[in-house]
## 1
Amino acid sequence: MIVQLLVSGIAVGIVYGLIAMGMVLIFRAVGIMNFAQGDFLMFGGYFAYTFNQMLGLNIVLSLILASLCMGVIGVIFMRTSYWALRGAQAKAIIVSAMGASIVLKEGARLIWGSIPLSLDKVKEGSVTVAGATIQWQYVAIIGIALLLMLLVYLLLEKTFVGNILQATAQDQYMSSLVGIPVIVSIGLTFFLSAALTGICGGLLAPIFFLSNTMGATAGSKAFAAIVIGGFGSVPGAIIGGLIVGLVEQFGGAYISSTYQLVLIYVVLIAFLMFRPRGLFKEKIQEKA
Amino acid sequence: MLKIENLVSHYGSIEALHGISLQVGKGEMVALIGANGAGKTTLLNSISGTVTARGSIEFAGKEILREKAASIARMGLLQVPEGRHVFPGLTVEENLLVGTVAGKGLRLRPGDNSKELEMVYETFPRLKERRQQLAWSMSGGEQQMLAIGRALMGQPKLLMLDEPSMGLAPIVVEELFEKIVEINQSGVPILMVEQNARLALKVSNRAYILERGRITAEGASADLLQDPKVLEAYLGKMVSGKKDSSKREEKR
């Protein structure tokens, strides 16, 4: 039982971490918490459903295509909900993101209906390890999520494009003074963030079912992960996601499945009370 | 190289520059001096396209007033802004490589930049020692060197320096200005904004004095250094018998 919960907790948690990472990328680039991020997950899940169930494509290919489609949606989101308001106060952009969230939610209902849907698992069946039955889907999720995180890390830290994205995130004014077209750089960040989050929808759908309201729950769990991990920190978002996933799975099994979300918020509040800056510090610090 | 005519610039509804005309010729070092709030930084920002303005700005024979900041930078008109603005979370070398976007454009791979890096490291050996260090953790002087080095990576056709001496110890300022003169002598024209008027006038060929958004004096720097009005207002000389303590004096 414990091994099973541990694996499912890590699998779900790493997905929350991935969504949180998407939010942190946008937060670092434009200084805004994107409250439509959860809906990127939901929409990505529906794209995966379309490719997998409606067009009959292989699930891995469907996930990749869904991710690319979400990247494009991310760029459209940036252009419509952020760019025009970039000079305005943060709260204006937050409200506009909330508006986009409603558009995505209701758009999904118009296109795909409101009946919960499911799609293929990456790998069917299960494996028995030390007496515990573990679904292959969980193992696949962990593997794919780790791979994606590694790729993002390499892209941001080890490549020239990553340097340019980071430079723009750190100082937009200066980036334009070295000749970087800020809209391209920010657009690429939104593409990356939405593509990452979109793939998560397809990974979670076989476990939780796909519905047009799944974004709000997943988004709030990812937000909790960010606060626990330390605002703006990528490793923090991942560790925070794992904590949230484990609390959800173990709490659901041993305490009450009805109060899973409540338990997450209890942990969140505990962090806010005792470690309000989260687990990780930011890479850039104020010089003493 | 740079020819500005009748430039007017606003911050909201407040007019910050009231018709500025200014020129920087090939290979020249031009200083722009003036008190706080005179509009020096606004002028540089208007040239680099980060503040909107009216009038005319001609660079290398092309009108650039309506161009976007990023394309002006890619034309080789590079500004090193006040407060240095290094990219804090990138290493020294990454900062320098990002600087090549101005000269070589936006691209997926950096390509071979060893020539540019070598040139910058030769000018500022300190940067080579620290090339793996994150920029935020460096001293003010090193950050200023990095900011200038990053601009040099973009193969500037004209360099605009905004307050390069700000917040630096006198000995660091001295070292830095030697390098700035060196860069100018290698053929890069420089437009420099500087509060340390004496120093700016010493190293430059010509200078403009900006007061409340207007140019009130211009001429060869050597002449301005002798001008009693300039002496009193900007160099803290006791012309009227009273020392003006509000102006920074160069400590030597």
## 2
Amino acid sequence: MNPTLAGFLQALLLVAALAASYRPLGDYIARILTGPRHLRVERPLYKLIGVDPAADQTWYAYLRSVLAFSAISVLFLYLFQRIQNHLWLSLGFPAVPAPTAWNTAASFVTNTNWQSYSGEQTMGHLVQMAGLAVQNFLSAAVGIAVVATLIRGFTRTETDRVGNFWVDLTRLLVRLLLPVSLVFAVVLVASGVVENLHAAQTIHTIAGGTQSLPGGPVASQEVIKELGTNGGGFYNANSAHPFENPTAWTNWLEIYLLLVISFALPRTFGRMVGDNRQGYAIVSVMTLYWVVSASLMTFFEWQHHGTALQAAGGAMEGKEVRLGIAASSLFASSTTLTSTGAVNAAHDSLTPLGGGIAVFDMMLGEIAPGGTGSGLYGILVLAIVTVFVAGLMVGRTPEYLGKKLSAREMKFASLYILTTPAIVLIGTGVAMSFKAERAAMLNSGAHGFTEVLYAFTSAANNNGSAFAGLTVTSDWWNTTLGLVMLFGRFLPMVFVLALAGSLARQKPIPSTAGTLHTHDPLFVGMLSGVVLIVVGLTYFPALALGPLAEGLHK
Amino acid sequence: MAKPLPPLVRLHLTGLRLLLVFTVICGIAYPLLITGIGELIFPGQANGSQVRLNGRVVGSSLLGQNFTLRRIDPKAPSVPDPRWFQPRPSAAGADGYDPTASGASNLGPNDTGLTKTVQARRLAIALFDGVRPSSVPPDAVTGSGSGLDPDISPAYAYEQVNRVAHSRRLPVATVRALVADHVDGRVLGFLGQQRVNVVALNLALARLG
């Protein structure tokens, strides 16, 4: 079979699998978020946590819970790393240095999973499984919980209550993330991903040298790393490492896992607002961007532009032979369009325009399909902007799903959209203006600039993948990027929750002949345009200095 | 009776309690359960797909390893051993294929250093294997993402057949047949790429004597 056809078939199988999961998984998540009953296992958990599961919160109380919980998580994870040398399974590693521990704590709590450390040289097994992997579960659930309030903003009327954070979180963990992880962790172990608690074992190789074979509870972490769109690798090489991703089959499965929840959430949205067509409209826009991105990425990698890649005769630098161009491109594009940031190839060595696609994917705000929960709230904010723009065109007060979009709602939507680009562009500008920070670049010229731009884009969008040539172990980079991740995660959440509260308070307005349909192809087209123009174009000057300057250079 | 805690403190304590509960469930119970299942049902895979030669563990079939000549001076550059099939270049550790330092070169597609390295590798491999430089495939002159890639392309494996056969005084046909036996197709016919696992191939070579 020729490679193009094989590459096409693997993507087709992925689309088929995602389409098959769309309805059952989306409906299931809707039931988790709306069902009145608590499971028998959940009631004692609420007792242990000390919350009344029947008490609904206002948007402000919900927000305070999110922030308090996240602050505690950052602190806990920071301390955990700082004392790892006194705990079990530390493998003899010392305490993680303060700047790295801070960066890593911020990174895993914000669902970014940016790694300024090398897993196999820094983290003991206990920190990996009971510290880092726990945040893989929790941060993914927080994202879905926040989008649940936004959907409730549309479905509830004349109330100041948007749900109970502790209940949403517990249910998503107990009913969704944990059971799915259990099943696929076993599948991954069966397929060759390691799962043990051994320290590295030194052996004599076939040719008589020595090699140190690492151990670790990898499979259990690998599955939630993808499913929760986290992306923090157990080992430094992440999903390129054969112990994390041993075959082309596990590679395909990992791409499926990192996409499946985010692609099913529009169904949850459609189901909860009582009109499945609304979900289809949103998922169409997500699919459109995903297909275009994956196709362009694959095309550019096949072309292998760049002097080094031309000299090699193919874009195999930083890629694994068992995976090859097509599977690496599909992974790269999926991981940057979600907030995953796991990598199965070195993004720094992608072709100039292929790497440009990766950074642009994140710049779109990770909405195609985006992180668990954060992808859907990102695109719903853009849908609100679209409805507003359409309303301006015809001179009507815009309304979305029976809720009026007044100045208040538009302020929150605008703030949401402005936050991330501001952080990325100001951060990149500041870093580039300091000589010492510029020295962190491995590559020179336009490619070096792209490394810095990529780092800030990845951190602010909570992606976590990197042009890893950049040395980010200095105090400045660790501290700055830690702050960027926290602002990039929680400022948008503030605006989403405020928006949810504002929508829930409203009386519904009946739909009339003049109401814009938000489920038809016209709206899909308009929303796609708004994504590209409002979000994408913000970054055009920065892209022109980086990937475009390198990629269009003759 | 003690004074009730301020609401803000109570809120953070609730957060801490939820965090601790799920640290026990997702961070301790869940990975231990998966580890238990792994040890019981899939011990080979769970422990890293180790391979043995004469009863001794000599590596993992998933991790590439060096096939270089023994060095007297540990600081001297490593030299590929012509009797073995050679893996791809590796950026993991100083000598390559060091699983305690997995990773890629991270050099950009237009990097002049990488361009020169690729050209130098092409010439060195052509000389080593006695083939034309233009017939050296891309995977032979580029480093992988993990630095631990156990596989090479079938083209690179076949290219090394003559050299391996001559230095082992084996019939070329025997070595070629061995390579043919070790070409793995795409998973399900369309996932990934055709490849030859160098560790498995060299292990078979070692068993040949």
